[in-house]
């Protein structure tokens, strides 16, 4: 059987093929190829749009990520100070002895040259010492390592001395449990200039035992 090919388009558009049939007739079949499609991939315009969107996302996301990091640093530092206060309280109860949560200011820690517990603190903010004898004190915690740039103190930390009953006092006022309301301000205020809002965490104590925190905004330091 012979067939005839007509109108072949060698560029791939199409062709006609005639197949002989009985009685001298031919069956004509047209073969056509669909329009060609470009190879898969990005055009220059698509790439430029993608880069523009990525740039916008980076401009928005990077500051938010930095804010999250600085907020976490501030929270971590505050939690360390709260943890140190609780450690001082529990150590005093456990040993039935005086302990002290230390201020960053030496004069806040001690009542005089014979005050072994207060003098042991020096300027180790957030450190905790326990009085072992009338003339010596042993460290329980050496300080707050995360209280460093960009986190800093706004003002001074108040020293708190705990007795065996678990109540905390100011070293210079051992007759009445410490209360932030009476003292007129927070026990500690830590902040960071890396945040524009919610950049302070203040620590309060009520009736010598109840510890709370509050997030505020303001200049730092």
Fold and architecture overview:
It is a single chain. The protein has two domains: 1-34; 72-216, minor pseudopilin epsh domain (minor pseudopilin epsh fold, 3-Layer(bab) Sandwich). With 221 residues, it is α+β, with helices and mostly antiparallel strands. The strands form three sheets. It has a five-stranded antiparallel beta sheet. Strands 7-10-11-12 form a four-stranded antiparallel beta sheet, with helices on one face. The N and C termini lie far apart (100 Å). A hairpin with a 7-residue loop joins strand 10 and strand 11. The protein has helices at residues 44-95, 106-109, 116-121, 180-183, and strands at residues 4-6, 14-20, 26-32, 99-101, 128-133, 136-141, 151-153, 160-162, 168-169, 188-192, 200-206, 210-216. The protein is built from four helices and twelve strands, in the order βββαβααβββββαβββ.
Search tags:
alpha+beta; elongated; 12 strands; 2 domains; 27% strand; single chain; 4-stranded antiparallel beta sheet; minor pseudopilin epsh fold; 221 residues
How large is the radius of gyration?
Answer: 39 Å
Name of the top-level CATH class of the largest domain: Alpha Beta
**Strand composition percent:** 25-35%
Order of helices and strands: EEEHEHHEEEEEHEEE
CATH superfamily of the largest domain: minor pseudopilin epsh domain
Poorly predicted runs of 5 or more residues: 8-12
Helical proportion? 25-40%
**What is the CATH architecture assignment of the largest domain?**
3-Layer(bab) Sandwich
| CATH level-3 fold name of the largest domain | minor pseudopilin epsh fold
Number of strands: 12
The main pleated sheet reads as: 5 strands, antiparallel
Query: Number of helical segments?
Result: 4
| Cα shape | elongated
Total of domains: 2
* Overall pLDDT level: 86
The rounded distance between the terminal residues' Cα atoms is 100 Å
Family: Belongs to the GSP H family.
Organism: Dyella psychrodurans
Subcellular location: Cell inner membrane
Pfam families: GspH, N_methyl
